[in-house]
Amino acid sequence: MEKPSNLLLKLSRSLFADTAEQEKFIHAVTNPQPFNPAILWLQSKPTENPFILENPVSWQPEFVDRLALESKPGKHSLHQAGHYYCLDFSSIFAASTLLTIPQPIKLILDMCAAPGGKSIFAWKTLNPELLLCNEVIGKRMGMLISNLRRCQIQPSAAANVDSKILAEKIPQTANLVIVDAPCTGQSLLAKGDKAPGCFHHVTINSNANRQKRILANSAKIVASQGYLAYMTCTYSTAENEQVSEWLLSKFPEFQPVTVPHLEKYRSHLTEIPCYRMWPQDKLGAGAFTVLFQNTSDGERNQLPADFLDLTRFTNL
Fold it and tell me: 22-32 pLDDT, tens per residue?
């Protein structure tokens, strides 16, 4: 067993008052375990499922299957043909807040879209008239576009644009903006991956400030009565609950949405209805998710006719 760092011990105490729960959390982070792979079906499930399935959890969408540990869905021919998308079950949990959003939906913008899992989940769930997938890190664009094309996600468009530019170009246009925010990625450790400096306060504060900037720009794009979904794959309250509280203080027209099917996962670290998956739950490495609604009145702005040209969005 790897000895927990002082920073991890400090984090565990800030997350849980109960020492037994602190120990379970630390053990899950420092002793990585495999988690069941999951797939999101985009076409009809075959009559005979090629995989061994785990029993679904109560909130699991019907178009998602959680597979036996030994499954290798990424190597199956159905994957190459775009019949399904492989997605971490923690990501399914985070994106499941979108199941509460009523249809019809005209426009969805995924602000931090690569490699495309949350975009594809939103497209499958809400059937928008247009899906815009943005990714500010240029070297991740190839993976995003490849996944959208393989899975035949249409109509969609992808671009590499800063959130500030989008806030200026298309204010109050989107029925839903998804911010799967860049974060310290502390949950990567529970999967056996690396996340250098992820528990250091400087790294945490830097990521929290970046998230606030992206969320502020994203909030300006949400149309009246539209939604803003914020999620991370990290544990720190400074990047999750505290950022959510900051957003509500800066944009009082936004209100948190209660997600009934996730009530048992509600965070005990704030009064805001937001939700967490912990690694000790053994469903996934961890996730934080919250859904906000813009309660202001008004008409949704239309996308400018020359929008795709102005912002370097490419139709797929």
Answer: 999 999 999 99
